[in-house]
Amino acid sequence: MTDHVLIEADGGSRGNPGPAGYGAVVKDANTGEVLAERKAYVGIATNNVAEYSGLIAGLAAAAELGASTVDVRMDSKLVVEQMSGRWKVKHPSMQPLNAEAKELAARFSRVRYEWIPRAENSHADGLANEAMDAGAAKNSEAPKTVKQDRTSPVGWTGATGTPTKLLLVRHGQTAMSVEKRYSGRGDVPLTEHGKQQAAAAAKRLGSMEGLVVDGEAAPIIASPLIRTQQTAQAIADALGGRVETHPGLIETDFGDWEGLTFKEAMDRDPEFQTAWLSDTSIAAPGGESFDGVHRRVRKARDELIAKYGGRTLVLVSHVTPIKALLRMGLDAGPSLLFRLHLDLASLSIVEFYPDGNASVRLVNDISHLS
User: What is the CATH superfamily name and number for domain 154-369?
Assistant: First the structure.
Protein backbone atom coordinates (compact mmCIF):
# COMPACT_ATOMS: atom_id res chain seq x y z
CA MET A 1 0.00 0.00 0.00
CA THR A 2 1.28 3.48 -0.93
CA ASP A 3 0.14 6.29 1.34
CA HIS A 4 0.96 9.28 -0.88
CA VAL A 5 0.28 9.13 -4.63
CA LEU A 6 0.38 11.44 -7.63
CA ILE A 7 -2.39 11.31 -10.24
CA GLU A 8 -1.83 12.62 -13.75
CA ALA A 9 -5.08 12.65 -15.74
CA ASP A 10 -6.16 13.86 -19.15
CA GLY A 11 -8.97 13.54 -21.65
CA GLY A 12 -9.51 14.50 -25.24
CA SER A 13 -12.23 14.79 -27.87
CA ARG A 14 -11.63 14.81 -31.61
CA GLY A 15 -14.31 17.30 -32.61
CA ASN A 16 -15.45 18.61 -29.20
CA PRO A 17 -17.92 17.00 -29.12
CA GLY A 18 -16.52 14.03 -30.97
CA PRO A 19 -14.90 10.64 -30.35
CA ALA A 20 -13.44 10.99 -26.85
CA GLY A 21 -11.20 9.09 -24.47
CA TYR A 22 -9.33 9.53 -21.22
CA GLY A 23 -6.10 8.44 -19.61
CA ALA A 24 -4.94 8.43 -15.99
CA VAL A 25 -1.69 7.45 -14.32
CA VAL A 26 -1.16 6.87 -10.59
CA LYS A 27 2.43 7.15 -9.35
CA ASP A 28 4.19 6.83 -6.04
CA ALA A 29 4.66 10.47 -5.04
CA ASN A 30 8.06 9.75 -3.51
CA THR A 31 9.68 7.50 -6.10
CA GLY A 32 7.72 8.23 -9.29
CA GLU A 33 7.01 4.53 -9.78
CA VAL A 34 3.92 3.92 -11.91
CA LEU A 35 1.39 2.07 -9.76
CA ALA A 36 -1.63 2.05 -12.09
CA GLU A 37 -2.75 3.15 -15.53
CA ARG A 38 -6.32 3.66 -16.71
CA LYS A 39 -7.63 4.49 -20.17
CA ALA A 40 -11.00 4.14 -21.91
CA TYR A 41 -12.97 5.31 -24.91
CA VAL A 42 -16.09 7.18 -23.77
CA GLY A 43 -17.95 7.60 -27.05
CA ILE A 44 -19.00 10.96 -28.44
CA ALA A 45 -18.32 13.57 -25.78
CA THR A 46 -16.67 16.92 -25.09
CA ASN A 47 -13.13 17.56 -23.90
CA ASN A 48 -14.44 18.53 -20.47
CA VAL A 49 -16.40 15.30 -20.06
CA ALA A 50 -13.36 13.26 -21.10
CA GLU A 51 -11.07 15.17 -18.71
CA TYR A 52 -13.44 14.70 -15.77
CA SER A 53 -13.70 11.01 -16.68
CA GLY A 54 -9.91 10.75 -16.52
CA LEU A 55 -9.86 12.37 -13.09
CA ILE A 56 -12.58 10.03 -11.80
CA ALA A 57 -10.71 6.98 -13.11
CA GLY A 58 -7.49 8.19 -11.47
CA LEU A 59 -9.16 8.84 -8.11
CA ALA A 60 -10.84 5.42 -8.19
CA ALA A 61 -7.49 3.74 -8.93
CA ALA A 62 -5.82 5.65 -6.07
CA ALA A 63 -8.58 4.52 -3.71
CA GLU A 64 -8.08 0.91 -4.79
CA LEU A 65 -4.38 1.26 -3.97
CA GLY A 66 -5.22 2.41 -0.43
CA ALA A 67 -3.75 5.91 -0.74
CA SER A 68 -4.59 8.51 1.89
CA THR A 69 -3.08 11.68 0.38
CA VAL A 70 -3.28 12.56 -3.30
CA ASP A 71 -1.77 15.18 -5.57
CA VAL A 72 -3.63 15.63 -8.85
CA ARG A 73 -1.91 17.22 -11.85
CA MET A 74 -3.95 18.08 -14.95
CA ASP A 75 -3.69 20.43 -17.90
CA SER A 76 -7.43 21.19 -17.70
CA LYS A 77 -7.78 24.58 -16.03
CA LEU A 78 -11.55 24.11 -15.78
CA VAL A 79 -11.38 20.78 -13.92
CA VAL A 80 -8.62 21.94 -11.58
CA GLU A 81 -10.41 25.19 -10.69
CA GLN A 82 -13.81 23.54 -10.25
CA MET A 83 -12.44 20.72 -8.10
CA SER A 84 -10.51 23.26 -6.02
CA GLY A 85 -13.78 25.11 -5.40
CA ARG A 86 -12.67 28.36 -7.03
CA TRP A 87 -14.95 28.10 -10.05
CA LYS A 88 -18.65 27.24 -10.04
CA VAL A 89 -19.92 24.24 -11.99
CA LYS A 90 -22.55 25.86 -14.17
CA HIS A 91 -23.01 23.40 -17.04
CA PRO A 92 -25.63 20.69 -16.24
CA SER A 93 -23.58 17.95 -17.91
CA MET A 94 -20.58 18.76 -15.68
CA GLN A 95 -22.44 18.76 -12.38
CA PRO A 96 -22.86 14.96 -11.95
CA LEU A 97 -19.24 14.37 -12.99
CA ASN A 98 -18.02 17.00 -10.53
CA ALA A 99 -20.16 15.45 -7.79
CA GLU A 100 -18.84 11.97 -8.51
CA ALA A 101 -15.24 13.19 -8.46
CA LYS A 102 -15.81 15.01 -5.17
CA GLU A 103 -17.37 11.92 -3.61
CA LEU A 104 -14.30 9.91 -4.59
CA ALA A 105 -11.98 12.66 -3.33
CA ALA A 106 -13.73 12.62 0.04
CA ARG A 107 -12.32 9.13 0.67
CA PHE A 108 -8.82 10.58 1.10
CA SER A 109 -7.44 12.61 3.98
CA ARG A 110 -6.18 15.23 1.52
CA VAL A 111 -6.40 15.91 -2.21
CA ARG A 112 -4.51 18.78 -3.81
CA TYR A 113 -5.07 19.93 -7.42
CA GLU A 114 -2.43 21.54 -9.63
CA TRP A 115 -2.62 22.82 -13.20
CA ILE A 116 0.31 21.87 -15.42
CA PRO A 117 1.13 22.61 -19.08
CA ARG A 118 0.10 19.94 -21.58
CA ALA A 119 3.74 19.14 -22.29
CA GLU A 120 4.14 17.96 -18.69
CA ASN A 121 1.12 15.68 -18.94
CA SER A 122 2.34 13.53 -21.81
CA HIS A 123 1.87 10.14 -20.11
CA ALA A 124 -1.84 10.63 -19.44
CA ASP A 125 -2.30 12.38 -22.80
CA GLY A 126 -0.75 9.39 -24.56
CA LEU A 127 -3.15 6.99 -22.81
CA ALA A 128 -6.12 9.18 -23.76
CA ASN A 129 -5.05 9.15 -27.41
CA GLU A 130 -4.59 5.39 -27.32
CA ALA A 131 -8.16 5.10 -26.03
CA MET A 132 -9.47 7.37 -28.80
CA ASP A 133 -7.54 5.41 -31.43
CA ALA A 134 -8.98 2.14 -30.14
CA GLY A 135 -12.48 3.60 -30.18
CA ALA A 136 -12.06 4.89 -33.70
CA ALA A 137 -10.80 1.49 -34.88
CA LYS A 138 -13.75 -0.26 -33.27
CA ASN A 139 -16.24 2.16 -34.80
CA SER A 140 -14.70 1.75 -38.25
CA GLU A 141 -15.54 -1.95 -38.08
CA ALA A 142 -19.18 -1.29 -37.15
CA PRO A 143 -21.97 -1.33 -39.76
CA LYS A 144 -22.25 2.01 -41.51
CA THR A 145 -26.04 2.00 -41.60
CA VAL A 146 -27.66 2.54 -38.23
CA LYS A 147 -31.40 2.48 -37.72
CA GLN A 148 -32.57 5.74 -36.16
CA ASP A 149 -34.38 5.30 -32.87
CA ARG A 150 -37.46 7.45 -33.39
CA THR A 151 -38.13 7.52 -29.64
CA SER A 152 -34.64 8.73 -28.73
CA PRO A 153 -34.75 11.40 -25.99
CA VAL A 154 -31.66 13.17 -27.33
CA GLY A 155 -33.61 15.92 -29.08
CA TRP A 156 -35.37 17.18 -25.98
CA THR A 157 -32.79 16.50 -23.24
CA GLY A 158 -29.74 17.87 -25.00
CA ALA A 159 -27.90 14.59 -24.38
CA THR A 160 -25.07 13.89 -26.79
CA GLY A 161 -23.22 10.76 -27.78
CA THR A 162 -24.21 7.12 -27.94
CA PRO A 163 -25.73 5.94 -24.66
CA THR A 164 -24.98 2.74 -22.81
CA LYS A 165 -28.37 1.06 -22.44
CA LEU A 166 -28.87 -1.10 -19.35
CA LEU A 167 -31.70 -3.64 -19.34
CA LEU A 168 -32.21 -4.32 -15.64
CA VAL A 169 -33.79 -7.66 -14.75
CA ARG A 170 -34.63 -8.67 -11.22
CA HIS A 171 -34.20 -12.37 -10.45
CA GLY A 172 -37.17 -14.73 -10.19
CA GLN A 173 -38.92 -16.03 -7.09
CA THR A 174 -37.12 -17.82 -4.25
CA ALA A 175 -38.46 -19.49 -1.13
CA MET A 176 -37.31 -16.48 0.90
CA SER A 177 -39.12 -14.02 -1.33
CA VAL A 178 -42.33 -16.06 -0.95
CA GLU A 179 -42.04 -15.73 2.84
CA LYS A 180 -41.01 -12.05 2.53
CA ARG A 181 -37.76 -12.55 4.41
CA TYR A 182 -34.68 -10.37 4.22
CA SER A 183 -32.72 -12.01 1.44
CA GLY A 184 -29.38 -10.36 0.84
CA ARG A 185 -26.25 -12.48 0.69
CA GLY A 186 -28.12 -15.71 1.47
CA ASP A 187 -27.49 -17.91 -1.57
CA VAL A 188 -30.89 -19.43 -2.29
CA PRO A 189 -32.00 -20.90 -5.64
CA LEU A 190 -35.10 -20.12 -7.65
CA THR A 191 -38.31 -21.99 -6.92
CA GLU A 192 -40.01 -23.79 -9.81
CA HIS A 193 -42.24 -20.75 -10.22
CA GLY A 194 -39.13 -18.58 -10.16
CA LYS A 195 -37.66 -20.63 -13.00
CA GLN A 196 -40.87 -20.07 -14.98
CA GLN A 197 -40.58 -16.33 -14.33
CA ALA A 198 -36.96 -16.37 -15.51
CA ALA A 199 -38.00 -18.22 -18.67
CA ALA A 200 -40.71 -15.63 -19.33
CA ALA A 201 -38.26 -12.77 -18.88
CA ALA A 202 -35.81 -14.55 -21.17
CA LYS A 203 -38.47 -14.96 -23.84
CA ARG A 204 -39.28 -11.25 -23.56
CA LEU A 205 -35.67 -10.22 -24.03
CA GLY A 206 -35.26 -12.74 -26.83
CA SER A 207 -37.93 -10.90 -28.80
CA MET A 208 -36.39 -7.44 -28.35
CA GLU A 209 -34.43 -5.75 -31.13
CA GLY A 210 -30.77 -4.93 -30.70
CA LEU A 211 -29.84 -7.68 -28.25
CA VAL A 212 -28.32 -9.89 -30.92
CA VAL A 213 -26.24 -8.10 -33.57
CA ASP A 214 -24.50 -10.01 -36.36
CA GLY A 215 -25.00 -13.21 -34.40
CA GLU A 216 -23.41 -11.81 -31.22
CA ALA A 217 -25.54 -11.52 -28.10
CA ALA A 218 -25.40 -8.47 -25.86
CA PRO A 219 -23.25 -8.85 -22.75
CA ILE A 220 -25.19 -10.44 -19.89
CA ILE A 221 -23.79 -9.52 -16.48
CA ALA A 222 -25.21 -10.89 -13.23
CA SER A 223 -24.71 -10.78 -9.50
CA PRO A 224 -22.72 -13.81 -8.29
CA LEU A 225 -25.63 -15.29 -6.30
CA ILE A 226 -27.45 -18.44 -7.47
CA ARG A 227 -30.85 -16.79 -8.00
CA THR A 228 -29.43 -14.18 -10.36
CA GLN A 229 -27.13 -16.66 -12.11
CA GLN A 230 -30.09 -18.96 -12.83
CA THR A 231 -32.15 -16.06 -14.16
CA ALA A 232 -29.26 -14.79 -16.25
CA GLN A 233 -28.55 -18.23 -17.69
CA ALA A 234 -32.14 -18.47 -18.93
CA ILE A 235 -31.62 -15.16 -20.73
CA ALA A 236 -28.25 -16.29 -22.10
CA ASP A 237 -29.86 -19.47 -23.46
CA ALA A 238 -32.55 -17.39 -25.21
CA LEU A 239 -30.03 -14.98 -26.75
CA GLY A 240 -27.25 -17.44 -27.46
CA GLY A 241 -24.90 -15.56 -25.15
CA ARG A 242 -22.95 -16.23 -22.00
CA VAL A 243 -23.18 -14.98 -18.44
CA GLU A 244 -20.53 -12.81 -16.84
CA THR A 245 -20.43 -12.09 -13.12
CA HIS A 246 -19.82 -8.75 -11.41
CA PRO A 247 -19.64 -8.63 -7.59
CA GLY A 248 -20.80 -5.01 -7.56
CA LEU A 249 -24.30 -6.14 -8.56
CA ILE A 250 -24.81 -8.29 -5.44
CA GLU A 251 -27.71 -7.52 -3.08
CA THR A 252 -27.43 -5.54 0.15
CA ASP A 253 -25.80 -7.34 3.06
CA PHE A 254 -28.57 -7.37 5.67
CA GLY A 255 -26.24 -8.74 8.33
CA ASP A 256 -28.01 -10.08 11.41
CA TRP A 257 -31.42 -9.59 9.78
CA GLU A 258 -30.70 -12.05 6.99
CA GLY A 259 -33.50 -14.62 6.84
CA LEU A 260 -35.83 -12.70 9.18
CA THR A 261 -39.21 -11.31 8.20
CA PHE A 262 -39.78 -7.58 8.57
CA LYS A 263 -41.83 -8.21 11.73
CA GLU A 264 -39.19 -10.48 13.22
CA ALA A 265 -36.49 -7.88 12.61
CA MET A 266 -38.70 -5.13 14.03
CA ASP A 267 -39.47 -7.18 17.15
CA ARG A 268 -35.76 -7.86 17.57
CA ASP A 269 -34.39 -4.33 16.96
CA PRO A 270 -37.37 -1.92 16.95
CA GLU A 271 -35.49 1.34 17.45
CA PHE A 272 -32.60 0.39 15.23
CA GLN A 273 -34.79 -0.74 12.35
CA THR A 274 -36.90 2.41 12.57
CA ALA A 275 -33.73 4.48 12.29
CA TRP A 276 -32.48 2.29 9.44
CA LEU A 277 -35.67 2.88 7.47
CA SER A 278 -35.26 6.64 7.70
CA ASP A 279 -31.49 7.05 7.19
CA THR A 280 -29.71 5.39 4.27
CA SER A 281 -26.31 5.91 5.92
CA ILE A 282 -27.19 3.44 8.71
CA ALA A 283 -26.17 -0.17 8.12
CA ALA A 284 -28.15 -3.18 9.29
CA PRO A 285 -26.44 -4.81 12.31
CA GLY A 286 -23.36 -6.49 10.93
CA GLY A 287 -24.39 -5.52 7.42
CA GLU A 288 -24.27 -2.78 4.80
CA SER A 289 -25.93 0.64 4.47
CA PHE A 290 -27.93 1.64 1.42
CA ASP A 291 -25.45 4.47 0.88
CA GLY A 292 -22.71 1.88 0.75
CA VAL A 293 -24.68 -0.13 -1.80
CA HIS A 294 -25.18 3.00 -3.90
CA ARG A 295 -21.44 3.72 -3.99
CA ARG A 296 -20.67 0.10 -4.83
CA VAL A 297 -23.21 -0.04 -7.65
CA ARG A 298 -22.07 3.29 -9.08
CA LYS A 299 -18.52 1.93 -9.25
CA ALA A 300 -19.82 -1.20 -10.98
CA ARG A 301 -21.79 0.92 -13.45
CA ASP A 302 -18.72 3.02 -14.25
CA GLU A 303 -16.59 -0.09 -14.77
CA LEU A 304 -19.16 -1.62 -17.10
CA ILE A 305 -19.54 1.59 -19.10
CA ALA A 306 -15.76 1.87 -19.39
CA LYS A 307 -15.69 -1.68 -20.77
CA TYR A 308 -18.87 -1.69 -22.88
CA GLY A 309 -19.62 2.00 -23.47
CA GLY A 310 -22.21 2.67 -26.17
CA ARG A 311 -23.63 -0.87 -26.15
CA THR A 312 -26.75 -2.53 -24.78
CA LEU A 313 -26.16 -4.63 -21.66
CA VAL A 314 -28.41 -6.99 -19.73
CA LEU A 315 -27.82 -6.72 -15.98
CA VAL A 316 -29.46 -9.35 -13.78
CA SER A 317 -29.49 -8.23 -10.17
CA HIS A 318 -31.57 -7.57 -7.06
CA VAL A 319 -33.97 -4.95 -5.74
CA THR A 320 -31.52 -2.50 -4.17
CA PRO A 321 -28.86 -2.44 -6.92
CA ILE A 322 -31.54 -1.99 -9.61
CA LYS A 323 -33.14 0.82 -7.62
CA ALA A 324 -29.69 2.40 -7.27
CA LEU A 325 -29.19 2.39 -11.05
CA LEU A 326 -32.64 3.86 -11.65
CA ARG A 327 -31.93 6.48 -8.99
CA MET A 328 -28.73 7.44 -10.85
CA GLY A 329 -30.69 7.69 -14.08
CA LEU A 330 -33.31 9.93 -12.47
CA ASP A 331 -30.73 11.92 -10.48
CA ALA A 332 -33.05 11.35 -7.50
CA GLY A 333 -32.45 11.32 -3.77
CA PRO A 334 -32.29 8.27 -1.48
CA SER A 335 -36.01 8.41 -0.69
CA LEU A 336 -36.55 6.72 -4.07
CA LEU A 337 -35.39 3.47 -2.45
CA PHE A 338 -38.46 3.44 -0.22
CA ARG A 339 -40.99 4.69 -2.79
CA LEU A 340 -40.18 2.51 -5.80
CA HIS A 341 -41.53 -1.04 -6.05
CA LEU A 342 -39.84 -3.67 -8.21
CA ASP A 343 -41.49 -7.03 -8.79
CA LEU A 344 -39.71 -10.34 -9.20
CA ALA A 345 -38.49 -10.94 -12.78
CA SER A 346 -39.37 -7.35 -13.70
CA LEU A 347 -37.67 -5.39 -16.46
CA SER A 348 -36.49 -1.78 -16.20
CA ILE A 349 -34.37 0.18 -18.70
CA VAL A 350 -32.03 3.13 -18.17
CA GLU A 351 -29.59 4.77 -20.56
CA PHE A 352 -26.44 6.64 -19.56
CA TYR A 353 -24.94 9.12 -22.02
CA PRO A 354 -21.21 9.95 -22.22
CA ASP A 355 -21.91 13.64 -21.50
CA GLY A 356 -23.43 12.84 -18.09
CA ASN A 357 -27.09 12.83 -19.13
CA ALA A 358 -29.34 9.83 -18.57
CA SER A 359 -32.80 8.60 -19.52
CA VAL A 360 -35.01 6.11 -17.68
CA ARG A 361 -37.05 4.38 -20.37
CA LEU A 362 -38.96 1.70 -18.46
CA VAL A 363 -39.63 0.77 -14.83
CA ASN A 364 -40.94 -2.49 -13.32
CA ASP A 365 -42.46 -3.96 -16.48
CA ILE A 366 -43.95 -7.42 -15.80
CA SER A 367 -46.15 -7.72 -18.88
CA HIS A 368 -44.23 -10.86 -19.87
CA LEU A 369 -45.45 -12.60 -16.70
CA SER A 370 -49.15 -12.30 -17.47
Answer: Phosphoglycerate mutase-like (3.40.50.1240)
